[in-house]
C-alpha cells in the first residue's frame, strides 16, 4: 500500500480521481495471502466503490491467471455502494484479481437526463449527451459500435439544435436503452482508479477440497505376523481401501529407520533386536528422506504401488517429517543444520522434561539455512518425481513459516496437483498461519470436540469464520498418536457417531485404520491417548474379516459423500435446533441449492435419545404445508416429514446417526415410490 | 505491503526470521488511515505475535511523534498469542506506531531450564545459559547491566564446570529472576521482525472528542426586527450561550451573499429588495469566501468576537461551504473551476428535477484542479489566521475525498488545534470515508432515529462498530435544514427527550437555536422538514425570555456533561434492558470505571410510562445485595436502588428523562445525606 500515511503530494497525484474502492473481499490479511479455490469454482468478489457527489460510478472486476492477460467483467451494484462480480478459475495454479472503478460521465448524464422535465433543460442536456456519446464512439474498439454511437450522437445533436423538436422526441432518443448499453461498453477511464493491490488465489484440484483419507502402516500390511509388510502387500489392500470409499491412502514415513537410540515397543527406551522402531526416526546409514526402508521394497515397487492406486483413483500420500534419526546421513554431512548442546553433542528433540533422543530437529536459524531449505525442498521434489501428489506434513509448526511459504510455492510451480496436509495440533493462530502460507488442508481440534456445544461452536467457526477462505479442515476421529478418551470408553456407538460426523461435517476427513474400523480402544495408560501396542513402534496383524468391523458402515458414508454434492464442500453447513442436549442436528446444502443432506446424531452411546428437530423450511425451498421426504442414506429408510418440527429417535446400539438426503420435490414419476 | 504475493526469494530474504506479526489493532483499513485520539489518551495496541516451535517470543510496541525518535515498551501476553501494550499521546499532531517481535533465545533457555530435572541435562543447559547471558552482557548499553550479567554468566559457567555442584545450586543460580529481568532488557534482535507498516494516529485537542455546539444565525442576533444582526450583537449573546453550557458557537457562512438569482423568503425564486438571501449562496462583487458580509461587521469586529468567545472557553465555528453564488469573484476569475452546460453557461447545482440556480458547484475534475485546491485551502488558512479553530464543512460529500485528505492535513500542519466537522447526511460508506480522510467529527442519522430499536441499533453501531476508531458522531436533534417530524408533532416532551438523548448518548452534540430551545415546530409544508420562515432566507427575532424556553433544561444537561467523565466519551455506552417499548435505558461509564451515568427516557410524549430497568451489577462493581444510589442530575432527586431490577416511571409533561449519576459507594461521610 504505497499511499499509506501519505498526504497526496499535490504536485504528483491526479486529484481528479474521485472514486474510491474499499473493503475488497475476499482477502486474507489484506491480500497478503491467497484465498483457496479448486478448479471450476467461481470466485465471487465484492467491494465498496463510490465517489463524492451524485455522479454514477461504474466498476469492473479484473482477474488473470498468473502471467496471462487481464480479463474483466462489469460489477453489479448490491446495496449501500457494494458491488459484486465473479469469475471462474479453470486451471490449476496462481490467479489474481483486483477491482477498477470510475466516475462514469455518460451514465451520470443518462441518469440525470431521464429525470429532466423542463423543455429548455432537456434540450441543453441532449446536446451535452450528444457530445458524450460521440466521445464514447471515439473510444470504441469496434467499428460497429463506433458507427452506431456516431449515428446516435448525430441524431441527438440535430434534434437538440432543431427548435421544433418536442421534449418527447428528445427524451425518446436520448433515453434509448439499447444504444446506451453499447455506449456503456466504451467508458471514459481517464480518471479510473484500479485498486493498488492484486489479491491472489491458489487454485488446486478438487481433492484439496473434498477427500477421504485412510492412514495405514505398510509395515503391518503383511497377513503373516512373522513377516514385515511391503509395498506388494499394500497393493493387495487397495481393493479394501477402495471398497470403503477412500481416495487418499496415507502412509507414515517409508524411509530407513534410525538404529541409534531406536525406540522399542510401546515407546520403551531400549529396542530389542527385532523391533522395527518408529518410522518418524528417519534415516540410517543407507539413506534418509529420499530412501526407502529395504523391508518395504524398492523404488520400482513403490512406483508400481502408486500406479495401481492411481488406477483406482486413489492418491498415495506420503508423510513428510523433517527431522533426523541420529544416524541420518545429513547429521554427518551437515552438522550445521542442527543445534549443538553446550557439551558439543547435537541437540535432540525435547520439551522438558520430555525427551526424544531418537530424533534430531533441524535448526531453522542455521547460518546454512539456504542449503538446508534447498535440501528439504529436494525431498518433496524427489517424491513428486516418483509420482506422489499428496503429502501429509508432520509437525509443520516446528519449522519456519517462511520456509513453508517458499517450499510449497516451489513444489506447486513444479507440479500444481500436489496437495499438502498440515499436521499441526497446536495453538489456533499457528494452525491458521500454516494454512495461510499454503497448506491445502489442516488437521483440526475435532478429535477432542465431543459435546453438542463444542461441535456446534467449532464447526460454525470453521465454516463461517475468516478461515473459511484459506483453512480447509481435515477432521480425524483418531490418529496413531491419538486414541481419544471418547473412543476408549464409548464403544461401537461412539466409533460410528464420530466417523459419521467426520464424514458429514467436513468435506475432508480421515481415519487411522484398521485400528478404527476394528474398534481398537485399548490405551497404553489410563488417562493417556497413546494406543497400547502402537504400530508406531511395532508391526501389527489385523483381522479385517471380523464381523464387528465398521468397514461396511464407512463404505456407506463415503458413498453418501460421493453422491451428495452438499457433503463435498465445507460451505453450506448450518446447525439445526433439536430439543435434546444429547442430540446434534445439522444440514448441508450444495452451492447451487439442489442437494441438501440432513444429519441427526445421538451423542449418547448408552441410551436411545429422541427429540424434535427444526428445519428452516424457507432456506430449503420447502413450501409451508408441503410434505417432504428424507431418505436415510445409511439405513435406506424413508421418512415423510412436514412442517418445521419433526420427531427423531436414535438407538445407539443399532445406528446412532441419520444421514438423510432431503427430497422436497417430485423429480421423477417414480419418486412416488418413496411415499409408499 | 511490499511482500504481498511474493514467495520469498531465497537469495534475498533472511529465512532465519521465524516470528510473525498478525492482526495488529487498532488499524483503519489496514493502516491506510489514522485512528483518532485526543491529547492525554492512551493508545492501546494489540497484535498476534508468534513463531514456529516452542521457543519464547517477545515483542515490543514502538511509537513516535511524527519526525521524532522511536520509543518502545515491552508488550504483555494476553491469551492465544495476543500481546498488548499502550502509549500516551501527549501532543497534538501525527503519531505512528508499529510492533517489533523476535524469538528470544535467552527467554527460551530460561523457560526450558526451569523445567529440567535430570542432573546431566541441568549441567549442560547451565553452560548454554552462561553463554547466552554473556551474549546479553555484550549487547548491554549500560555498564552496570553488563557487569552484572558478566558476573552471572561467570558464576553459572563455573558452577556448571564443577562436577561437585548439585542440581539445586545450578537451578537456584540459573533461575535467578532478578538477574533474568536485567538480561531481558538486552535481547538478541538479530532475527527480529518489525511490522513493515506504521500505523498512524491523529491526535487532536479534547474538544474534538467532547463538545456541545450551538448553531445560530448572526443575521438574527439583533433584538431589533428592523436591523440586521452584527458581530457586536453576537458578543451580547455570548453569556446566554455560556450559561446554557455550550462550548462551540457555530455560525452559518458570514460572507457576502450573492445577488444574482438570490432566493427570497421561504426559498421563493424571486427575492424582494430587502431579502437577505441564503448565506450559503456565497460571494458577490465585494468578495467571496474570505470576505465578511458588510452588515455583520468588519474583520476587526470578527476578531474581537472570537477573542471574547475564547475568553469564555467558547470556540467560534465557521461554516465552510465550497460553492459560489453566480456573482462570486472566482466565477469570473476562474471559469475553469466550474462545469459548463452545452449552451456555454455555467452549470448550477441541481439534482434533477430540483434546481439551485443561486449556487455553482466546483468541478473537482477541472484541469486546473491544483490551483483550485490551493485556493480552497487558502480559505481555511485565512480564517485560521483570523483565530478560527473549528470549521463545520458544508456538504463535504460533494467534493473529492482526496482533496479533503490533502487540505485537512495541510491545515492541521499549520494549526493542529483545528477541529473539522463533516456535514454529510448521506450514504454510510460516504460518511465513513470522510471521517477516515480526516474530519474530526461527523453528523449522523440521529436526527431521524426515534424508536427504541432504532436508537439502540444505531448507537451500538456507532460506539462498537469499526467506526469507533475514526468516526466521532456529533448528533443534532435539529438543524436549519431539518425540522424532523418528531419535533413538529411531539411538542415540548419530544424537544426535551431528543436534546437529553443527544447530550447523553454522544460526547458531541449540537442544536440549532434559538429555534430549539424556543420549541419552533412549524414546518413550511406538511410532510416536509423545512422550517416555516426559515432563517436560511430571512432574519428572525427571537424572544429568549419566554417562560417555556428549554434554555435552563439544556444548561442542566450540559452541566451534567461537564461534571461526569462518563458523558465525555463515546466509549462505555451500553443499553439496558427495560420492559417497556416506549422506554429507553442506557448507562455510560468512564474509561477508569469511576463514573457511571444511568439514563432512562420516556419516548412517548403523551403518556406516563413506567418499567423495570435491569442494571448489570457486575459491570458496575455493585455487590449482590448492596444498596446503591442514583442521583438525578436533572431534577436533583435521589433514588435508592438495590438488586438488578428497579422501577422507573416518567411523566413526559414534567421531565421525560432521568440522567442519574450512580453512587454505589460511600465516598465521603456526608454521602450519608443522600440516604435521607
What's the architecture of the largest domain in chain A in CATH terms?
Alpha-Beta Barrel
Oligomer description: homodimer
- How many β-strand stretches of chain A? 30
Strand content of chain A: 15-25%
Poorly predicted spans of chain A = 1-8, 667-676
Secondary structure: helix percent of chain A: 25-40%
Provide the spatial order of strands within the biggest beta sheet of chain A.
Answer: 11-12-13-18-19-20-21-22
Could you explain how this protein is built, in words?
2 copies of one chain form a homodimer. With 676 residues, chain A is an alpha/beta fold. The first copy, chain A, folds into 4 domains: 86 residues, Immunoglobulins (Immunoglobulin-like), CATH 2.60.40.10; 79 residues; 348 residues, Alpha-Beta Barrel (TIM Barrel); 103 residues, Immunoglobulin-like. Chain A is 28% helix and 23% strand. Chain A is built from 15 helices and 30 strands. In chain A, the strands form 6 sheets. In chain A, strands 11-12-13-18-19-20-21-22 form an 8-stranded parallel barrel, surrounded by 4 helices. In chain A, strands 28-27-30-25-24-23-26-29 form an 8-stranded antiparallel sheet. The longest helix of chain A is centred in the N-terminal third of the chain and has 21 residues. Chain A is globular. The first copy, chain A, starts with 19 loop residues before the first strand and ends in a 13-residue tail after the last strand. The N terminus and C terminus of chain A are likely disordered. Chains A and B meet through strand 1, helix 2, helix 9, helix 10 and helix 11 of A and strand 1, helix 2, helix 9, helix 10 and helix 11 of B.
Amino acid at each position: 500500500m504505497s499511499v499509506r500515511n501519505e498526504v497526496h503530494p499535490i504536485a504528483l497525484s491526479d486529484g481528479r480521481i474521485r472514486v474510491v474502492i474499499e473493503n475488497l473481499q475476499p482477502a486474507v490479511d489484506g491480500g497478503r495471502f491467497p484465498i483457496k479455490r479448486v478448479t471450476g469454482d467461481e470466485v465471487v468478489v465484492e467491494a465498496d466503490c463510490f465517489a463524492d457527489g451524485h455522479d454514477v460510478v461504474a466498476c469492473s472486476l479484473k482477474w488473470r491467471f498468473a502471467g496471462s492477460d487481464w480479463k474483466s467483467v462489469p460489477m453489479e451494484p448490491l446495496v449501500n455502494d457494494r458491488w459484486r462480480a465473479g469469475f471462474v478459475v479453470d486451471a490449476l495454479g496462481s490467479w489474481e484479481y483486483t477491482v477498477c472503478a470510475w466516475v462514469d460521465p455518460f451514465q451520470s448524464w443518462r441518469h440525470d437526463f431521464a429525470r429532466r422535465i423542463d423543455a429548455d433543460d432537456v434540450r441543453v442536456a441532449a446536446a451535452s449527451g450528444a457530445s458524450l456519446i460521440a466521445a464514447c464512439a471515439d473510444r470504441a474498439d469496434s467499428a460497429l459500435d463506433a458507427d452506431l454511437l456516431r449515428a446516435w450522437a448525430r441524431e441527438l445533436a440535430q434534434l437538440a439544435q432543431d427548435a421544433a423538436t418536442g421534449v418527447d422526441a428528445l427524451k425518446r432518443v436520448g433515453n434509448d436503452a439499447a444504444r446506451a448499453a453499447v455506449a456503456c461498453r466504451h467508458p471514459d477511464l481517464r480518471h479510473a482508479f484500479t485498486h493498488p493491490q492484486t489479491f491472489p488465489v491458489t487454485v488446486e484440484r478438487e481433492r484439496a477440497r473434498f477427500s477421504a483419507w485412510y492412514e495405514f502402516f505398510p509395515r503391518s500390511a503383511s497377513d503373516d505376523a512373522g513377516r514385515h509388510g511391503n509395498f506388494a502387500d499394500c497393493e493387495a489392500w487397495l481393493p479394501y481401501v477402495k471398497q470403503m470409499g477412500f481416495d487418499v491412502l496415507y502412509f507414515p514415513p517409508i524411509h530407513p529407520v534410525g538404529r541409534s537410540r531406536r525406540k522399542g515397543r510401546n515407546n520403551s527406551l531400549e529396542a530389542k533386536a527385532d523391533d522395527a522402531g518408529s518410522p518418524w526416526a528417519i534415516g540410517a546409514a543407507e539413506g534418509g528422506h529420499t530412501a526407502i526402508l529395504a523391508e518395504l521394497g524398492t523404488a520400482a515397487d513403490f512406483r508400481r504401488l502408486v500406479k495401481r492406486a492411481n488406477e483406482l483413483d486413489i492418491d498415495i500420500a506420503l508423510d513428510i517429517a523433517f527431522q533426523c534419526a541420529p544416524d541420518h546421513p545429513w547429521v554427518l554431512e551437515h552438522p550445521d543444520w542442527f543445534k549443538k548442546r553446550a557439551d558439543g553433542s547435537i541437540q535432540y528433540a525435547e520439551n522438558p522434561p520430555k525427551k526424544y533422543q531418537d530424533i534430531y530437529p533441524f535448526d531453522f536459524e542455521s547460518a546454512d539455512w539456504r542449503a538446508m531449505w534447498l535440501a528439504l525442498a529436494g525431498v518433496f521434489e524427489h517424491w513428486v518425481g516418483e509420482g506422489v501428489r499428496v503429502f501429509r506434513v508432520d509437525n509443520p509448526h516446528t519449522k519456519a513459516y517462511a520456509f513453508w511459504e517458499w517450499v510449497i510455492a516451489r513444489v506447486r510451480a513444479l507440479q500444481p496437483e500436489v496437495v499438502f496436509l498440515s499436521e499441526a495440533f497446536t495453538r489456533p493462530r499457528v494452525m491458521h498461519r500454516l494454512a495461510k502460507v499454503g497448506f491445502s488442508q489442516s488437521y483440526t481440534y475435532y478429535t477432542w470436540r465431543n459435546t453438542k456445544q463444542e461441535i456446534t461452536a467449532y464447526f460454525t467457526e470453521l465454516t463461517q469464520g475468516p478461515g473459511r477462505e484459506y483453512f480447509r479442515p481435515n477432521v480425524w476421529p483418531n490418529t496413531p498418536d491419538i486414541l481419544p478418551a471418547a473412543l476408549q470408553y464409548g464403544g461401537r456407538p461412539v466409533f460410528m457417531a464420530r466417523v459419521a460426523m467426520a464424514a458429514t461435517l467436513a468435506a475432508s476427513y480421515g481415519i487411522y485404520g484398521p485400528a478404527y474400523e476394528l474398534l481398537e480402544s485399548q490405551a497404553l495408560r489410563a488417562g493417556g491417548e497413546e494406543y497400547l501396542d502402537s504400530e508406531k513402534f511395532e508391526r501389527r496383524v489385523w483381522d479385517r474379516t471380523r464381523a464387528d468391523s465398521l468397514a461396511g458402515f464407512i463404505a456407506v458414508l463415503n458413498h453418501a459423500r460421493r453422491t451428495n454434492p452438499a457433503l463435498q464442500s465445507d460451505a453450506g453447513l448450518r446447525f439445526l435446533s433439536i430439543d435434546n442436549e444429547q442430540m446434534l442436528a445439522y444440514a448441508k446444502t450444495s452451492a447451487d441449492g439442489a442437494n441438501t443432506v440432513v444429519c441427526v446424531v445421538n451423542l449418547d452411546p448408552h441410551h436411545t435419545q429422541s427429540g424434535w428437530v427444526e428445519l428452516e423450511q424457507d432456506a430449503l425451498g420447502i413450501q409451508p404445508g408441503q410434505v417432504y421426504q428424507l431418505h436415510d442414506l445409511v439405513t435406506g429408510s424413508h421418512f415423510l416429514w412436514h412442517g418445521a418440527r419433526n420427531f427423531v429417535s436414535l438407538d445407539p446400539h443399532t445406528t446412532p446417526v441419520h444421514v438423510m438426503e432431503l427430497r422436497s420435490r417430485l423429480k421423477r414419476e417414480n419418486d412416488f415410490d418413496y411415499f409408499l
